[in-house]
Write a structure and sequence with these properties.
The chain is mainly alpha-helical. It is 64% helix and 5% strand. InterPro entries: Sel1-like (IPR006597), Sel1_AlgK (IPR050767), TPR-like_helical_dom_sf (IPR011990).
């Protein structure tokens, strides 16, 4: 079973503006006695210093183009697959509960008087449960009041809430409406979000060209997420002519701002020599930077580099360490790879039960290699009770995704079933002529199925990247088998 390698991720990040950071210089400390005397004065003071507040922003990431490569593969195939994953972070200050309650009270006074900044900040406090129990509904309520007055950050945040269905019924169409309002005012995060929506056909007809248009607007304003997204579209040739050089250019721009996905993307470009001279050492350098920031795909790839000894000393223990970090974040390929290490006892104590555990996690996410691995464990009865039925189920799932090993595994189960059926026929009570006809029919059905499997694999080999001699040897071996 092969360890799986991930290539260029396009961690296209779609942001909101939910995270508002209150720096110490932007916090107005209001005397409690004066506050009791005059709430209006507090509101006025807040409005005067509103410009000093640093806006906290929501970062919603979207995994993008990933290059799937099996262990020892000579070249990766680009597989674009962008998914939305919303994540709201908040910069926690050292303020105590009393300070937060006071701040909440002050914002409430200003917000009730129509201050758009205070309304937006009040929404943030409700979202994060600061000085008040958390409430998405109240969060949306205050975002809407601020957004209706034209506050660009509140408009973008309201779009994020509609996209996630938080505090409102989920609606991509409503999300698009609010993203567009903010984007038209020049909000870079809303522009990037709008590009993501067009890329994925969410609330609008899918259009790579429109996606690129909005990514470019956002990237031009210095948005690192949009810069990374442009790297992805140039790498894959979606909405623009494919250009590895341009992809590298935009990845580098995002990296200048410490963008983890851009670091991962550049690492994959170096590993495969796309737009830059091929260098395992440079690939490891950028994978490590990204992995240290918690990027799950970079962690998986770093594990593969350790396992194969590319760009650094070979170490199964280090490979397991990085596979585990990635797998625990839910990365399906890393989960499969960790299963392989447990099954083979590489870098860990051998354990079929642990191997099954990680294969199953990978398989449940639809990873074809993980599905094949789980099927093989059921077929052999390793770590689980032996079951041809379960093996057949997982082999079939793997084969339906075009996984060659899954197809052969499926063929093997069918072969076994055919042989068992033939034995039953021969031991039955039918006349010899009927038995012979049934035997020939079963053999023919099995040969047809195996023939299809062989043809599919030969097609893959014929368009692969290995040498012609190697391909011919592999095809010959398949035919012989």
């Amino acid at each position: 079973m092969n360890s799986q390698h991930e290539g260029v991720e396009a961690k296209a990040i779609k942001e909101g503006d939910h995270n508002e950071r209150d720096s110490s210089c932007g916090i107005v400390e209001i005397d409690k006695e004066k506050a009791a005397e005059s709430k209006k004065m507090n509101a006025a003071l807040l409005m005067m210093v509103g410009a000093f507040f640093v806006t906290l922003e929501v970062i919603a990431t979207a995994d993008g183009a990933e290059v799937r490569a099996k262990r020892n593969a000579t070249e990766d195939a680009v597989m674009p697959n962008i998914r939305t994953r919303m994540d709201v972070s908040f910069s926690r200050t050292r303020e105590g509960a009393a300070d937060l309650r006071e701040k909440f009270t002050n914002y409430s006074v200003a917000a009730e008087q129509g201050d758009v900044v205070a309304q937006s900040k009040l929404g943030i406090m409700y979202r994060n449960g600061q000085g008040v129990p958390p409430s998405y509904e109240e969060d949306v309520n205050w975002y809407r009041k601020s957004a209706d007055q034209g506050n660009v950050k509140a408009q973008n945040n309201l779009g994020v809430m509609y996209q996630n269905g938080q505090g409102v019924l989920q609606s991509d169409e409503e999300a698009i409406d609010w993203f567009k309002k903010a984007a038209d005012q020049g909000n870079a995060k809303a522009q990037n979000s709008l590009g993501w929506m067009f890329s994925n056909g969410k609330g609008v007809p899918q259009s790579d060209e429109e996606a690129v248009k909005w990514y470019r607007k956002s990237a031009g304003r210095g948005d690192a997420d949009a810069q990374n997204n442009l790297g992805v579209v140039y790498q894959n040739g979606k909405g623009v002519p494919q250009s590895y050089e341009e992809a590298v250019n935009w990845y580098r721009k995002s990296i200048e701002q410490g963008h983890a996905s851009g670091q991962f993307g550049l690492g994959a470009m170096y590993e495969n020599g796309r737009g830059v001279p091929q260098s395992y050492e440079e690939a490891v350098k950028w994978y490590k930077k990204s992995a240290d920031q918690g990027n799950a795909k970079a962690q998986n790839n770093l594990g593969v580099m350790h396992q194969n000894g590319k760009g650094l000393p070979q170490s199964d223990k280090e490979a397991v360490k990085w596979y585990r970090k990635s797998a625990e974040q839910g990365n399906a390929k890393a989960q499969n790879n960790l299963g392989v290490m447990y099954q083979n006892g590489q870098g860990v104590l051998q354990s079929d039960e642990e191997a099954v555990k990680w294969y199953r996690k990978s398989a449940d996410q639809g990873d074809a290699t993980g599905q094949f691995g789980l099927g093989a464990m059921y077929r052999k009865g390793l770590g689980v009770p032996q079951s041809d039925e379960e093996a057949l189920r997982w082999y079939k799932k793997s084969a339906e995704q075009g996984h060659a090993s899954g197809e052969f595994g499926l063929g093997g189960i069918v072969e076994k079933a055919c042989l068992n059926q033939m034995k039953k026929q021969l031991n039955g009570t039918k006349n010899q002529q009927n038995k012979e006809m049934q035997r020939r029919k079963l053999i023919l059905e099995w040969c047809i199925r195996m023939g299809k499997v062989c043809l599919n694999l030969m097609k893959k080999l014929s368009i692969g990247t290995g040498s012609q001699q190697t391909k011919e040897m592999q095809v010959g071996k398949i035919i012989l088998e």
